[in-house]
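Re-running the complex after MR caught last week's input typo. The corrected sequence lines follow. Everything else is unchanged.
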Amino acid sequence: MNRPAPVAPVAPTAGAQRPLGLDEVQITGGFWARRQRVNAQATLAHIGARLESEGWLANFDLAAQGRLPDGRRGREFSDSEVYKYLEALAWEIGRSGDASLDLRLRATVARIAAAQEPDGYLNTMFGRPGQHPRWSQLAWGHELYCLGHLFQAAVARHRTRPGADDGLVEVARHAADLVCATFGVDGNQGVCGHAEVEVGLAELGRALGVPGYIDQAALFVERRGHGVLGDVEWGREYFQDDVPVREATVLRGHVVRANYLAAGAADVAVERGDRELLDALRGQWERTVARRTYLTGGQGSHHQDEAFGRDFELPGDRAYSETCAGVGSIMFAWRMLLADGDMRYADLIERTLYNVVATSPADDGRSFFYANTLHQRVPGVIPDPAATSPRASSSLRAPWFEVSCCPPNVARTLASLDAYVATATDVGIRLLQYAPSSIRTTLPSGAEVALEVDTRYPADGTVQVRIATDAEFVLGLRVPAWAIGASARVTGADGRTSVQPAPPGLFEIRRAFRSGDTVELTLPLVPRVTRADPRIDAARGCIAIERGPEVLALESVDLGAAQMDDVEDAVAGLPVAPVDRDGRVWLAVHRRTEHADGWPYEGGAVAASGDVRRTSGAGRGVSDPARGASDPAVEASGAAVEASGAAVEASGAAVEVPLVPYHSWGNRGPSTMRVWIPTA
Amino acid sequence: MNRPAPVAPVAPTAGAQRPLGLDEVQITGGFWARRQRVNAQATLAHIGARLESEGWLANFDLAAQGRLPDGRRGREFSDSEVYKYLEALAWEIGRSGDASLDLRLRATVARIAAAQEPDGYLNTMFGRPGQHPRWSQLAWGHELYCLGHLFQAAVARHRTRPGADDGLVEVARHAADLVCATFGVDGNQGVCGHAEVEVGLAELGRALGVPGYIDQAALFVERRGHGVLGDVEWGREYFQDDVPVREATVLRGHVVRANYLAAGAADVAVERGDRELLDALRGQWERTVARRTYLTGGQGSHHQDEAFGRDFELPGDRAYSETCAGVGSIMFAWRMLLADGDMRYADLIERTLYNVVATSPADDGRSFFYANTLHQRVPGVIPDPAATSPRASSSLRAPWFEVSCCPPNVARTLASLDAYVATATDVGIRLLQYAPSSIRTTLPSGAEVALEVDTRYPADGTVQVRIATDAEFVLGLRVPAWAIGASARVTGADGRTSVQPAPPGLFEIRRAFRSGDTVELTLPLVPRVTRADPRIDAARGCIAIERGPEVLALESVDLGAAQMDDVEDAVAGLPVAPVDRDGRVWLAVHRRTEHADGWPYEGGAVAASGDVRRTSGAGRGVSDPARGASDPAVEASGAAVEASGAAVEASGAAVEVPLVPYHSWGNRGPSTMRVWIPTA
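Corrected-run output:
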């Protein structure tokens, strides 16, 4: 195929689908356009101001002035936040052409370029007198990680403003050349403790047409997994240095590292036609999705090492589900989607976009969840807006973090989101994410294809695609796995109509379309009652309610009618159908029978016959001994395993309470919240 | 009351019960005597050798030689491990009179004494040129923490060998005087980031008759909770510096810190007759036991900060349940027991002894669990015996840790365990823990009381108490809360017998006993089926099996007959009663129906009527799109909330498998294990 390079974050030279760039797809309204607008108007300025006030931008000035290490502020990876901010600016400029953002980008690039050393080295933390030498702290120093983000920023700029004279691409190229000279086949055999340079080098190689960058990315991918980084408290899997990428069967260790590495490895596999590596990655993705992913698409249950737990170790109240891990998961899944063409990758991307990426920022785009718990047991504290919050302990969205990877990661994702809406094949267009949007591209056949998509999705399940050109092509529509009963109605410009069922997966219509033809996809958005694999202990006996791509949550501020202060006492009945006029789902909620506030475990003795004799009540273990002494309370019961009253018991009439989309929780002040709700 | 000072770790001057010391109680056989023997013969030597090989003892030599900081090894709290080792030696010498241990203690004390500075300061990490200044790092430096353990060691030596000329008590007194001079009313207003000096100072004050030490302990207790330590990533509750002790309602933050602080506060409250403080501590204990304690008695569900979770945040697979937290919980509960006389404290102590303290060491006493998970999902790796394991990531017992607080903490607990068996009141004796033992003491009335306890407990529920003196007194017997149906048979030396029911709590027999009288307590040891409060998410729909004080566990090595490799597929039926000849409990186990290895959440749509339409199977979310596309699979079902097949389904005949006491798991090589077992 002779493909034009798309204005998109990822542009493989092979694969089942070609991405459509920002010049070919524009989101024009709805759920995501609103978030993109907040991103452009509030979040980017917020990040820029914080990078300034935290001194992370000034570090580059100090470097240029030869004043480092004195006065350097921020963690060892703070340079990378500047680069991710640049990448977000570049995509947003590409989307909107905003001149003031362009000035901001140029001014920022100038400060970075001034800090670059003559041989291309660029990092404010290493290499100067009084600092550790260059590349001396590969496991924890994040030097290559930071450069990976620089490369991604340069790719964004190169693709959105080819030939721009700001110098960003040159800075990146200079640094990439140094990396290749330093870490090449006969060079330093190390890898960075945090994967990212792989994906950055691969894409920079694609963008600039430098195969050597892709070769270097491949070297980094292959070197890892042989214990090159040394052991750490949580084991070598933390760095994905326990098993070579092509031998691994599941993602493991630090979740962001794992997904960034997998994304880079996918790039390498595609560019080198390495089927074995791609097969290994597919298997890792499948097992990770099947066993190590929360209902929200979030990943990671270990707070300590920000890592995957073991298979099915997914307790809601210890969900870490780092925002950046969601971004990383989308990066990985997107590359696999382009390679394989399989809609299930787009299903996970949609789930993660709605329930992780959209969850992180507040409505005003100026505060963020770093971690995304599925069960908030105690109302959080509103963080001080002027403060820098610790990494992930904020229980409400916080304006900034000491490790502030999430805000710019969300920003660059939202600014480039248009590129994830649709793809092209040799014979047509595939719509992957449903948003009001304009799509026009030229197929390899030379056919000009133009579509206008109109929808209120996810509030409404109707997606109308209006064809704006005469062309014969295959229109592919992703029908999400949950959309049982979907249908597609094709209405010709001549008014003739046909309706077909559209089962989950890829639904395709091959037709000589005429301008004015419409295809109306109807996705059933009735609420779904979802249960988890019983190996996920903490969700056993619970339901979650989903509607379309949105996971819903029960938030305490909505429990007033049920006279409950927090979600701990709520027992779920059935959702009330249909949804109300505002699209809200209401759940019948019972109040749990009050429990004695004593020892929370209740046992019954198994007698010789297999009978169970019941102790008299919860709280016996810590009950008053005088009371205990006066109450022998030996109660013979049937031969059931029902030994106790500690099972969920609901009392009183059900009260209907509205559920909120999980992504919108925590926007009404401190509250408690749960996604998985116990049933009676 | 005119009480002799007991040879015991805690000797309050007031309270409902008086501890009986090692001179009054000796464990003579059985479950705990075996562990004490292993502790004396293997563990103490193992610890001594490791303290030497790790260089933590040599740090004192370097200090004495003026060579520090060069060559110092170990973390900032390594001095404390030496002191806990000394305390364990002192108790063991007190128990057994072992002369070689006495030599070892003396040699160790000499090396420590040589490192003490002229003004009493003692710490190998601070205060020298090239080190941080003394007391400059109170939040994390552990200087006062280390001294607290020194004081506890000195108390042990003073009480077991009063007037010994080894110098340990003098070293401690010198250091304690410096602490009081430095941190007194008008001195440095700081506190240590890790509580421990409070409990050490209070007991040293009691032992040496220095009220000023207790006053200093009170100052430390009262100062904390006002933000004196600064904020940290996990909030000030990590240090218990969020709320003053007397205002707190529950233990929170770092579990060992929280329990050590509560223990010290209890000492202060008792010595100063501070009812308000004691009431606050009682409330904290009650709520902590009711909401933040695992079935094993273990505490702490956060790996990251080794901390309590929120109420009911007790997932089995993320149980941290640090061994030292169990020791700390026993310290706190023991002080409350002496103050209040309430048997529920002894219930928790028993539970924690059998299921945390006894769990940590391997059968050979040379390796340890640092953390005590309730659910091991993947077989662990046997740690390298020569290596030092990271803090808590070992999934099998490890010989030593970088943070090696647990081995000496277990050792000092086992070496002083005799002191936790029984207490005295003004009118009698109370038996709190059942082990073969000899007890003799003099009551305030002057009555000489002597008892011989014989039992195979916990293998058997019969406890025979033989009275060995003629004396009128009240014999109190703790009947555990689970022991519904217990009875006591009193048989006079004359052969006359009476039987009474003995309900849970404190069962008392007031009698003019004659030598040769026996009291036989029968505790029903039939297996119990235990369920958890449903607010403990991960235990919902599960049972645990307990027998007597032992929590039982299902370990994969016993699942061969059920043709299962690990515990993940096991579904519990009923335990098989009665227990077999070896006292083992057998559980009927079904194999769970195989699940598709796809998306682990399954939803059914709620239709307008409230009906649920079922999606066709697990794995749909990641199923092959081609399959999905060919399978519309809209299945109308009844109007139930049973939306999915993801509930636990068991197949095939039940197979009976033996359960192991939780404390003995992991002694047969790598395995998976769970305490909470899902039911069908």
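None of the earlier attempt is carried over here. The longest strand of chain B covers residues 471-479. The two ends of chain B are 58 Å apart (CA to CA).
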